[in-house]
Amino acid sequence: MRVLPAEDASFEMRMPVVVVGAGAAGLTAALALRAAGQEVLVLERDPVPRGSTALSAGLIPAPGTRWQQAAGEADSPERFAADILAKAGGEPDAAMVRAIATRIGPVLEWLADRHGLDFSVITDFRYPGHSACRMHGLPSRSGEELVNRLREAAEAAGTEILCEAQVTDLYADADGRIHGIAFRRPDGGEERLGCGALILACNGYGGNPALVAEHVPQLAGALYFGHAGNQGEALLWGEALGAATRHLSGHQGHGSVAHPIGILISWATITQGGFQVNLEGRRFSDESHGYSEQAAVVLRQPEGIAWSVFDERIAGIARQFEDFRQAEAAGVVLSAPDVAALAAATKLPEAALRATLEEVEALKQAGATDGFGRSFAHQPPLVPPYRAVRVTGALFHTQGGLVVDEAARVLRPDGTPFPNLYAAGGAACGVSGSRAEGYLSGNGLLTAVALGHAAGEAAARA
C-alpha cells in the first residue's frame, strides 16, 4: 500500500481510467464511464465482485422517484437531505448532502431504464430517521442480487473487469497526479498499468483491526460483519498523498446479527413493535433509535448478547428479505406459543421476560414513552406465537474517509482537488458524521451509487 514516484515506473500498457474495486461504487462508476463512451478497467481483488455490497440488504434510499410517486409517497431531495443531516447532528457538509440527495433518484431511474435493474420501494415500514418510505431494492432485497446485476450491466456495456488483481501501489508525481498503479495477480506476479484517471472504490478500513482500534476503539475486537478486503488502502494511499480526511471515527454498526451463525436480522423486527432483552430478560435501551448505534449498546450487555423478541406478524414483514429467510431456514428464528415456552427456548429467566413483555404491552396500550425514551404509540401488540433470535452487535463498515467534492474528486486540506484522483463509497468520507448514531439507514449504498456515478461522469469529462 505505497505511493511511489511516477518517474521510477515504466508501464506495460495504459488505460484512460482505472477503477479499484468492483462493488456498487466501482461498477456504477464504470457504467457512467461507458455511458460517456470512455474505456475503463475495473480491478477487483476477489475471484468475483462482491465486497460490502453483497453483504448488505441491497437497499438504496432515494427521494422523488417514480416508484415513490406510484406508491403515493411524497418526498423530495430537500426532505431527504434534512433527514440525513438530522440523524448526523448536522456534522456532514450540507452542500455535499444536498448534492447526493439530488443525484441518487435520477441515477436509480437511469439504472432501471438503461440497464434493466427492477427496483421497487419498500412501503410496509420505515427505517429509523427516514420521514418517508424511500428504500429501494431489487426483488430479493439482497445486496448479492444488486452487485450481480450491476456486474452483468457493466459487462454488457463493455466494461473490462479483472478479478484476483490486488492493487498494491500508486505512482504519482510531485503535484499529486496519478500516473499509474501496480497490481498483484494470484500467482504473485506484479504488473504496472498507466492510467489517465484513477477512481478509488475499494471501501473503507473495517477489515483492518489496527485502523479500527485507532479510529473506532469502542468496536475494537468486535465481530466484523463486513468484507475482509476492506483493509483501508484508499485511506492509506490518500494520507500518503497528503489528501484531506474527515470523520474517521464514523461507522455503521448493527445491533442485530444472529449469533453465532452470522446472519443479518432485519431491523423491522424492532421498528414494527419488537424489542431486545439481555440475558437477564430485561430491556436495556431505546432500540428504535437506530440499528447502527445499537451495535455498541448490545456489546455492552452480558456476553455481548441480546435476544430480539417479536411475533409472527413482524416475521411476515421481515420475510421479504433474503437474509431473514435464510435465518429461518437455518433454524435460528425460534418460535414459542406463550411466554413460558419462549423463556424455555431462549433460556431466559421466565419471570423477568414475562415482566418485560407485560411492560411493553402496557406502554403500547397507553401509547406511552418508556424510561429510555422510546415511544410505543401506534405500535401493535405482540400476539403469540412469539419469535426470538439470539443476536450480537457488529461493525459493518466505516463511514469516514477521503474528503471529496460533489464531483467525487479527492481534495487536499486546502480544498483544492487532486488532478485525476476520485473516491466513492467507503473510500470517501460519507454523510454520517463522526458517530455511529449519525448513520441513517442506507447511507453506505447511497454514497456508493451516487458518488460512484459522480466519479464516473467527472473522470469521463476529464
UniProtKB/TrEMBL annotation:
Pfam families: FAD_binding_2. Transmembrane segments: none annotated. Residues 17-434 form the FAD-dependent oxidoreductase 2 FAD-binding domain. The keyword Secreted does not apply. This is 3-ketosteroid dehydrogenase. The keyword Flavoprotein applies. Keywords: FAD, Flavoprotein, Oxidoreductase. GO terms for molecular function: oxidoreductase activity. One of its GO terms (biological process) is steroid metabolic process. Its cofactor is FAD. InterPro entries: FAD-dep_OxRdtase_2_FAD-bd (IPR003953), FAD-oxidoreductase_2 (IPR050315), FAD/NAD-bd_sf (IPR036188), Succ_DH/fumarate_Rdtase_cat_sf (IPR027477). Signal peptide: none annotated.
